[in-house]
Design goal:
Chain lengths: 95, 583
């Protein structure tokens, strides 16, 4: 697992959901991907033109571009299990 | 499609203004267009034309009203969309380059997306807002937002966000079209959009007798009156055309001008004038009576007057008509070449009745004819009931009268008896009705034409024989005899007979004349001879007289000579002696 996770978090201003999402993301990454990740936070209020490129609809959206496949996780990332599955860190549990 | 650029016309209203959609016919039904700055929902089944409707709204806005638009596609990719609408003559690529239209494809792939916790659709709003601001859009189309529901799970959030989206669109002041798939029980699957939209238009299609008709209905229009009927509409190579409402009032302008029928003898029957301009004329008759020829002659006459004529052929192809009319001396091809005549041929079964009406409307609006011919309307009955055909024709006649276009219909009568009604039931609608019927006698079939009615015109009540010659059509007086009406060869024979009779009669008269002259000559010569006889008798008589006188004279002279000789002794008695001797 030597890959670097490039993560982008799209937010729109400093809303509660955005703040919660960023906190959750940092916590999860520290726990599971220590030293193997980079987080870029994009505020669409400042750069609205970027929304089209990554097909952003919902806010907040976390986009994992690398490693493939591209995945998007929307919401405030409060469910750790789902985030880990979404980032392909943990296989989908069978139970 | 208007090519001139118009300023957006807004209805003068204190309540709210309307934005002209630019879709042909729709603005008439909505009395001005869609509500400005408000969202309108277009709902319908798959394939009902929702996407096209929204695209045309944007394109017309960009081209005709100088209102840029944003198209947010949830279904088709931008490339697909461009290709699909290119067939309608919309060049999206150019409009995009000119910053008139912006297409934003929203891709939602459920397999890529994981949902966790609270979120909202602010991202979508930001994208839309950015797109609107980047080209200063006044119009927005969202096609189809319910695709969000297939991509995202949290329905509660979505419903709330869609409400917010409508508010967002209103706050942006854009006139928006939102499309939605029709649900089972409600107008949309989610049963949500119709409540938050200010205007709801339903697109549908109906199949009757295997023929599909697209229809449009305005279900709701907040704060405005609108047509509530179902209106048929057509999608063709120029986009959508909705059949506009025909006015239900009977207050048309009428014309006193009259136009010739192309058959001088027929004009004579109509009081030397022909038909009124803007009137409707029905030519009905059984098969093969020359209805198309009458119609073609009428069209030909119009073209010769340099008027424009549109010929709707439902039975024959234009080439067939041109060829067939050549045989009666009508050269229609040259009118086509000069652009005075245009044929519009279609099989009645091509599409539904309403669709035909829309197509006819369109063709008329485009060609702007003075004269229209529909040949024949009978075939329309194969795709609709009598009452439907009648309704359609009423609307057509209404429209044509409003445009002051003279129309001639031909109709096939199936039976040879004179009925008070044509099969289409339009006889009461038309202004003039020519009836051509077969006159069957002496083992031949001839055509008789008469005028069943001609509103507002003195017209002949006679049956004329209708003859088709190499040099066109003509009407001939029929022969009325004690046996009835004579036509065709019977008429010719009768005429011949009468001619012969006249010759014989003339012959007889001249013989009598000669006889008389001869008699007269004889008498005259008799008179001459009598006169000469008389003259000779008279001469004879005169001769006697003269001789007598001469004799007397001579005798007298002799007597006096003798007296003179005896003069010596007789003096007194001389006279007496002479007297005595005389005795």
């Amino acid at each position: 697992m030597g890959k670097i996770y490039e993560l982008r978090l799209y937010v729109a201003g400093k809303t509660t959901k955005s703040v919660v999402a960023l906190e959750n993301l940092k916590r999860i990454c520290e726990e599971h991907l220590k030293g193997k990740y980079s987080i870029e936070v994009i505020d669409l209020l400042e750069k609205p033109q970027l929304a089209e490129g990554d097909q952003i609809l919902a806010i907040p959206t976390l986009v994992k571009k690398v490693p493939e496949p591209v995945r998007k996780i929307i919401g405030d990332l409060s469910n750790v299990e789902k985030v880990l599955v979404g980032l392909d860190i943990r296989p989908i549990s069978t139970d | 499609m208007a090519t001139t650029r118009k300023k957006p016309e807004r209805m003068q209203s204190s309540v709210f203004s309307k934005t002209r959609s630019g879709i042909s016919g729709l603005d008439e039904i909505t009395l001005g267009g869609l509500p400005s700055g408000r969202p309108t929902l277009i709902c319908g089944e798959p394939g009902s034309g929702k996407t096209l409707f929204s695209i045309e709204f944007l394109v017309k806005g960009a081209l005709d009203y100088d209102e840029p638009g944003v198209f947010m596609a949830f279904e088709e990719k931008a490339d697909e969309l461009r290709t699909n609408v290119a067939s309608l003559g919309f060049d999206l690529e150019k409009l995009e380059k000119d910053k008139k239209i912006r297409i934003d494809y929203v891709h939602i792939d459920r397999s890529e997306i994981e949902e966790t916790g609270e979120y909202d659709l602010e991202g979508l709003f930001i994208r839309l807002g950015h797109a609107i601001d980047s080209i200063g859009a006044k119009r927005v189309a969202l096609d189809t937002i319910e695709n969000l529901f297939s991509g995202l799970n949290n329905e509660g959030i979505l419903r709330a966000e869609i409400r917010r989206l409508f508010q967002f669109l209103k706050s942006k002041g854009v006139t928006a079209i939102i499309t939605g798939e029709r649900g089972e029980k409600s107008l949309t699957r989610q049963g949500l959009e119709e409540y938050v939209s200010d205007c709801v238009i339903l697109l549908d299609h109906r199949v009757v007798n295997q023929i599909s008709t697209r229809i449009l209905r305005i279900i709701k229009y907040r704060g405005s009156v609108h047509g509530t009927n179902e209106y048929p509409f057509l999608i063709d190579d120029e986009g959508i055309s909705v059949l506009p409402v025909t006015s239900l009032e009977l207050n048309k302008e009428v014309s006193l001008e009259s136009i010739a029928s192309g058959i001088p003898a027929l004009d004579k029957m109509l009081g030397f004038r022909g038909f009124y301009k803007g009137s409707s004329i029905l030519v009905s008759g059984t098969a093969g009576t020359g209805k198309t020829s009458v119609a073609a002659t009428f069209a030909d006459a119009a073209c010769k007057r340099k008027e424009r004529c549109l010929f709707f052929a439902f039975e024959e192809s234009p080439k067939q008509i041109i060829r067939n009319m050549n045989s009666i001396g009508l050269n229609m091809q040259r009118h086509v070449d000069k652009g005075f005549l245009e044929f519009y041929a279609s099989r009645p079964t091509l599409y539904g009745l309403e669709m035909h009406l829309v197509a006819i409307h369109k063709a008329i609006k485009k060609f702007k004819p003075d004269v229209v011919v529909l040949d024949p309307i009978t075939n329309l009955i194969s795709i609709g009931s009598v009452s439907e055909v009648k309704t359609m024709l009423v609307r057509l006649i209404d429209f044509l009268q409003a445009e002051q276009i003279t129309v001639m219909f031909t109709a096939l009568a199936l039976n040879n008896t004179i009925t008070e009604q044509t099969d289409e039931g339009v006889s009461s609608l038309v202004d003039a009705w020519l009836m051509i019927r077969d006159i069957d006698s002496n083992g031949e079939r001839n055509r008789g034409l008469y005028i069943m009615k001609s509103r507002g015109m003195k017209h002949s009540n006679q049956i004329r024989e209708f003859v088709i010659t190499d040099r066109g059509l003509d009407l001939v007086d029929v022969f009325l005899t004690e046996d009835g009406v004579l036509t065709g060869s019977a008429r010719k024979a009768r005429m011949l007979l009468e001619q012969t009779g006249e010759v014989i009669h003339a012959q007889a008269i001249s013989r009598k004349d000669r006889e008389l002259a001869r008699k007269r000559k004889v008498l005259e010569s008799k008179i001459d001879s009598l006169r000469s006889e008389y003259e000779s008798a008279e001469e004879e008589l005169n001769k006697v007289y003269v001789e007598e006188a001469l004799k007397k004279q001579v005798m007298g002279e002799t007597l006096s000579k003798m007296t003179d000789l005896r003069r010596a002794d007789i003096s007194e008695d001389k006279k007496i002696t002479v007297k005595k001797s005389k005795k």
